[in-house]
Structures are given as C-alpha cells and as structure tokens.
Amino acid sequence: MNLREWYLAAYPQWEARVVGLRSKIPLWAAMGALTAGMTLVPGSMIVQKQRVLNTGTPVVLETLPIDPRDLFRGDYVRLNYHIHLLNTAALAGDDTFQRHQAIYVVLEPQGEFWRPTAVWNQHPGITPGRVVIRGEVKEEDRATWVSRENMTPQEWAEVPEETKQDYAKSKNPQWRTFQVKRVRVVYHIENYFVPEGEGRVLERPNLGEKVSLRVVVDDKGTAAIQQVLINGQPRYTETLW
Amino acid sequence: MDTPAFLKRLQQELPRWEAAGLTQPQHRQAILDMAGGAPPQPKAGETARPWHQENKLTLFFYVAGALMVGTGVLLFFAANWPLMPKAVKMGVLFGALWASLAGAGLAFRRNPSHPLGHGLLLLAALLYGADIMLVAQTYHIESRFPNGILAWAVGALTAAWLFRSQPVMILALGLSLTWTLSEYFAYDVYFHWPFLLLQVFIWPPILRHGWVPARRAAVGLFLLWAILPPDFSWFWTDRSIPWWDRFPWNPLTAVVLLAGLAWFRRQQVFLLTALVFSALWMIYLHSMWHEGTSLAGIRFPWPWLFLPIWGALHLLARRADNQSWYSEPRITRGISSVSLGSSTVSWGVFSLWTFISVFTLNDMSGDIFEFTWGDSPRFWLGFWIHLIRVVWLSADRTSLHSRELLFLHGAQVLVFAWILSFGGNHDGITSPPNIPVLVTLLFVAGVALAGWRYQRRQGGSVGGLALSAALGLTAAGGLSLTEAYQREPLGKWAAAGVNGLLFGGLVWLVMAGTIRRDKAWMNIAFAGLAVLIVTRYFDTFFTMLYRSYAMMSAGIVLFAGGWMLERIRRRLLALMDNPPNTTPNLRRNAP
Lengths: 241, 591
What we know:
By secondary structure, chain A is an alpha+beta fold. Chain A contains six helices and twelve strands. The relative contact order of chain A is 0.17. Helices cover 73% and strands 1% of the residues of chain B. In chain B, α16 crosses α19 and α19 (402-420) packs parallel to α23.
C-alpha cells in the first residue's frame, strides 16, 4: 500500500469534509474569499502603520546610515542608530537580557536628540517627558570599539595594564578606542526605502551633513519612521497617500 | 522516449534476437512502441486523463509566463516606486492582483483545470507576495520578516487548496522552505516546529490529487528541514574550535544509519535517503573547504571525500541489485556511472571523464589548480566539455547508463551556462589570445560535428529542433570565442547574451522533451527556468528597470506561445473530429 492509498483509506471522512470541501464551495465564493484574504493581509499592514503614526509621540534619533539594498524591495538605507548598542551596566533598570528577548528602552531628550536612560525587561509605564521604545535583543555581548570617555569604570578596570600605559603615553589619546561588550538591539526601524541609486547618497552624506530620523513611538513601544532629516530639515516625510 | 537512431538500430536488432529465441515475433511491435515512447493506452474501465495533464506544454508556457511577468512586475515597482503617488501604486498593485484572480476565476469557470487558470492563479499568488513586500517598502514597515514570508506561504497554500493547483502548491512549498530557513538563519530557531504545522496542511491535497512533482518537492523539503544541524554559526566562523569539532558529523551519521537500515530492512527508500543526505554532506564539506580548513596542515579538497562515500553506497546498491526489494532506481545508476564507471564502457574512459567532470565542477572557484585563465574561458570550457558528452550520448543511447549520463551531463551544461549568466563572471579575462581555450573549442566543435554526423548516419533527422539547437550552439560558440579573444572584458553584455541563449535553450528543452515525450527533460528545463528567474531577480548587473523589462517581455512571449499552442491544439482536434473532406474551413469549426 503506498502513501496515497494509506491516506485515502485511513481518513475518508476527514478527507471528504475538509479536503473535498472545495467541491461544495461555489467558484465565486472561493474566489471571493481568496481575494478578500489576499487584500486584507497587506491592507492591515498599512492600517497598523498609520495607527502608530497617528497616535504616537515623535522623538528624534541620531543615526549612522550604512549599506543600502534589499533583495526583495529594492534600495534602502540601513540605519544604524546610536541606541543600537547599549551599555546596560551604565543605564538604569535591568542588566541581563537574553538573545531575541524584548527590551524596553526609556528615551529622554538630551539636547537635539533623544537618548537612552534606562532599559527594562518589561514595559516600565509611561511618564511625562519620557518615551519607551520596544526593541529586540539581537546580541547579548556584541564586541564594539568605544573611546575612553564612553567606557564604564568596570570596563576600564578590565583593560590590560600594558594597554593603559600605552594609552597614557599616546600623543592623540582622543583617537584611541577600546573593545568592549555591548547589548545590540534592533527596533524594526532600521531600514528606510529610497529610490534606486539614492541609497548611496544617504549612505555617504556630504561633508557637514548629518542624517537623523524623526520616529514616532506609540504607548506600547512600537516605533515607526516619520521623517528622514538632513541637518534637521526633512528630506523624506511619510504620508498615507 | 529514445532517438530515431536507437529505434532504427532496435529494428535491425530485433530479427536477430527473434532468431536467437530471445524474443517472439509477435512482441516486436510492442517492444518498438515501448522504446519509441508511444503513449500508454487506457486500461479497461479507466477514464481518460484530465485535460490539463494532456496539455503539459501549454501549462508550462502559461506557468513560466506567469513567473516571468510576476517577477518583472515586482522589479518594475521596486525600481519605479518614487515616481508614482502611493495611491496609484496601491491601485496598480491591488488591481493587478484582483485582475489575475478574476482572470483565473473566469478560466476555471470554463474548465476547472484550465492551464491558463493555473497560470493566472500562480501569477496572483506571486502578486500577493509582491503586494506584501511592496506595501512594506512603500510604508517602511518592518517586523520579524519571516512572518511576511509565512503570510505569503499561507496565501499560496489556500489558493492551492481552493483551486487544486499543483503549480501554486509548489510555490507554497518553496515559500515554506524560505520561511523555515529564514527563522533558522536570522533568528537562530534551530528546531522550527511550526514548520510541521504547515506540513499538516500541505500533505492532504498532495495525496488526494496524486500530485507527483509536489510530493517529491515536499519530501525533499522535509528532509532538508530534518537534517539542519543544531547550530550553523560555529561551523563557518569559529576557527578556534578544532576541525573535528567543526566537522559535519550528523549528516555523515545519518548516511551510515540509513545505509544500514537499507540493508537490514531491505527497503530501498532508505538507500535513496542516504544518497540525499550524502549530497547534503558534500555541501557542508564544500563550505568547509572554501573556508580554507586544513587537515594536519595540508589543504585538503574535502568535496572529493564525497566520491568514495557515493562509491560505497553504490557498492551497496550493486550487492542489493539481485535482491527482490531493490529495483535499481535511476539516481543510483546515474551516480554509479560517475563514481565507479559503467559496466558497458571502459572503466578508464569513464574514470578520465569523471575526473574532468569533477574537476570542472569543483574548480569553479579556481582554488585547486589556480589556472591563470580568466573566469569566463574556464567556465566556457566546462560548458563545452559536458556538451560533448551530451552529443556523444545523444548519438549512442544504447549503452546501459546513457540516459542517466545524458541527464547528468546535460544538467552540468545548464549549470555552467547558469554560472556564465552572471555579469561578474565575465570580467576576469587575462591575456588574450588564449591558445588553450581556442584549441579546446576547436576540438569541441570537431567532436560535436562528428557526433552529429554519426547521429545522422544512424537515421536521425535534422528537423526544426536540430536546426534551432545548431543555431543556438553556433551563437554560444561565437560568444565564447569572442570572449577568448576580446582584449577588453565583455562583462554584462556577454552575460546578457548568455542569459538570452540560456532562456532560449530552456524553452527549446521543453519543446524537445514534449516531442520526445521525455518528462525528465521538461522538469529539468522548468527547474532551470525557475533558477534563472530567481537569480536574475536578485542579480545586480543591470538596473532593476532593465531586468524588469526583460522579464516582462519574456513572460509575455511565453503567454503568447501558450495561447498559440492552444489554438494549434484546438485546430488539430477539430481536424481529427471533422476530417478535411467534410470540413473545408477549419477556422470556422474550431471551438
């Protein structure tokens, strides 16, 4: 008995009820259901995005755009935010996070940009003057290079003595960087799609140009890009139509 | 099934066999019919096969056309989205989806298995995925991206269920694999059990409707899912771990276990599964090799370890050949011909050819012998070497493994043509004139001509197929020669030429497969076309807009071809129903 014969012998009723269901559904009903389903899925994506844009709080984030192009959807700018690499030990809140776990980052305005002040495993609740953005831990201990002033005392204590002496003798200590471990977080606002060929323009802005993003965050922490700013001026703005 | 040359020889041989008492005269016609691929007559009480099964060629044209138009539309929007207001973009995207679904509905209303209906339904399923991707692009929506692929797979699966469409089911299978692999690689989900949930919905229609290609694809998919090792990341990246800890032991263990099961349980399915696992094992080894892993300080060509493994499996198959449970499937015969040589052709010739075949395939990166030739002449060499074998085998199909070998070398011809279809593989030409390449090409041309002459002498005829093949090969020869002598690399223009030739070659293969009633070649051609479409979609050697135009034009040509074939078929049917003496005007009587 082959697999098909076994199947047809073992499950005649289920087969007749479920798999053979199509023969009982009129053609127009089947086609209507398929059309509705195939329209609703992408349509609901637009509705969800607009809901965040309409109800959320805008914050401005500092970025470093890199590496444009997406295989499915054409050119894009991959945005590398300053809040991507978090030193959880230096921030208030929880210290340990697991890979692919949700992370809630509290942002507060500091000058031109919003910067992280605390990180939590659970949503800490919203208070005036603060925004909570939800991210996902991509790597718990991402090795990254930072300058001396961006290191915590604990990180500096772990630097070998020889390296510290070398640093002390250096003529340009401001250029020296040290490898530390940080938590890398993604917020699902890392890609911004641009016309083919324009990605590289944003990737390498002219001298003196600074790219930043105005992002809207709703009360659950979901973020959506509202504007791409060059030197604080909008270059691209999100609209429904 | 086989060539006219083979049939002619068989006709000459049969009287001798009858005289020797090996066969009876009354069986002569049946033997010739079988060898000639005459369609099997329906048994008593058996109904005629569904209409779409009789029309595979038309279905191929519509499905391939749908794939190309769908991909072209996706590229067109990806390239042009800033020029249109969002409302227009959404209107066009959803309008195209609704139009395809409506067209499919109309076609299915006329006939529940109309090939145009299946083609349009496949186009709709592709456009649905395009809509998800392009809505995400237009509105800058990001989330866990495998979910988008899952939504696409579920939509395609629903369409396949509702309209009993095997092409759409195969698309859903491909998407479910993409989904599980993206969970695996991007989110480190090493045991992705939700994949099994999708399997629950994939299998019932496949079994119910007896969809053989979909069933094979589903089995392959499941095996691939089953052998994914627990963690890939260490395999490529962490050099601090000793090689024996990085070695892919688990597929090797699976091969040994399955081979043991095959022997003790007397079931060939285990042996075939062992072969699939061993192929996957070779892929692991290949990736290790390219990472520069060395064994005791010696750089070792790991993939070649694969040949003894295949050889051992083949020995098992040979021993099992006399057993009742073992029926010598084609795959083991083909593999055995390569790994150990054929029983009817000198072992030495086969070993030499095997060496060349393995060398040309494995040396695609140029790592083993480090030839100073540029990339494209080396790839052209691989293309022509395997093509000679195809010509030889076409001329003499009486040897034991000729069909399997024809299949194998033909596939390798396509692999090399595919490699040459990339723009980047035409940039590395060194210092022309390239004498070795010229000599090889002349040699190849001579052998090909000799094979063709031989075939003609054996009774083969030069029809439209042979003429178009000769034209295509002449163009390929001209292009490879031009590349060998061109001082400046031709780059993307040579690649564009190869793409055109490959596309034409695949369509030619489908036509030839249909005329010869050889399903295997049609399947290879269709798989090749799918690979070509996918790689051109992801390729970047032309702008998206140009690629979009090329895809859409080719798709429209295929749709038109399908429509014309359908017209011809109907006219022929009308002719058969109403012979010419009663129907002077065929056009008026066509349905």
